# Entry
Amino acid sequence: MGKPHKRRRGYSDEELDEEETELEEEEDEEEIEDEEDDEDEEDDEDEEWDEDERRAYRRRRRIRNQVIVYLVIALLAVGVAAGGIAVGRKAASFVKQKKQAAEEKKAKEEAAAQEPPEEEMVIDTPEPTEEEPEEEEDILGGLAESYYSEMSMEDKVAGLFMVTPEAITGVRTATQAGDGTQEALNQYAVGGLIYFSHNILDKEQISTMLSSTASKSNYPIFLAVDEEGGDVSRVANSKVEVTKVEDMASIGAGGDASQAVEAGTTIGSYLNEIGFNVDFAPVADVAGEGSVLGNRSFGADPQMVGEMVTGAVNGIEGTGVSACLKHFPGLGSTSEDTHDGRVEITKSLEEMRASDFVPFSAGIEAGADFVMVSHATAPALDEDNVPSSLSKKVITDILRGELGFEGVVITDALDMTAITDYYTPEEAAVMALEAGADMLLMPEDFEKAYNAVLAAVQDGTLSEERINESLNRIYRVKCAGKLDN
# Structure
């Protein structure tokens, strides 16, 4: 509100009006400043009030959270206590049950002790049935199948071959098994390797070579040698010091089959010690006059030769080494050598049954794991004059069908001229398997023979089932406790 002003001396009305206007404006400004000060004071009061409210809210929230935490802890404590009580009750119940069981058992034993003894019952134990060996055979078959069922077809086919170490490594003379052997066995998982005199330098060398080879093979592998005694003894006639065994003709002349057992045991023992697991012996041929076999045969009497063969097989197989009867259907009556060309057996079927088959039947009965089939032709057995090693009538019909052999049939070395002069490596390999052979020994060209068999399986000439049949027989021998690998 404006204040009245007295008229001042010396001032005009206009000047007084201007002064009054200025005074009013100053008053208005003061009023505005007072109002703003009042508003600032109110805002400060509001801010103070809001801060107090926030403090109170935070305090209430903190208290609430603490209460929640305390409640959770309390609930957990109650749960743990309850669980502990439950576990304790369960443990007590278990102890109580065990105690009751022990008391009941003790009571029964005391009651049984007071009862009079019952009359002893005699139960006749049934005689072993013929099914038990069959059950064992099924187990062996399952074990064998576990090996070859997981093989690639390439490995399956390679597993049907037994070759020299040189054939897969490409070296001129193999006397050790190193990286080259490892690479070769990885590429060609052959079923076996055969060693000759040039591979054997001394005992430590050949033992190391064999053990190293076995360790490098992805599958159990046959490690074979010709160790007949006498002249054909790759180990005994090397620098390896072993007990030498005389030739089979000398043992046969003595007429004592126990000497054949001893010879087989001696040979098998040192072969096993060195690391061999297959011996291509004994010779089961009945030697006629002028026989190409000379002193390698036990003699000319079929019955006596059969007894000697039985003894030799028992001796060799008893050491954990597989024996191999050779050379079916019998080379004893021939004067020619299949190494040098075609050889023919001129006997009739009945003559062979009465003579040549006798020792082979005896050796099969004794448990020989292998039979080696020769390359001689036998028109009385196969009118097509096919070498026996490639003849289905000789292998499947006679050896398996008539003589009942269920083991591994292996061909004689396929690099002999009795084969190479008439058949390519490819033809011989496929024909031998079609005839029923399980293993192919030393083809003239291993890679060609291998590829031919693989192609025959792929184009259906040979079925996979046929390959598996041979692998089954091979792995039954490998899994029958004869091999350590």
Remarks:
- The CA atoms of residues 248 and 296 lie 5 Å apart.
- The longest helix spans residues 13-114.
- The beta strands are 161-163, 192-195, 222-225, 227-229, 232-233, 278-279, 322-328, 370-373, 408-411, 440-441.
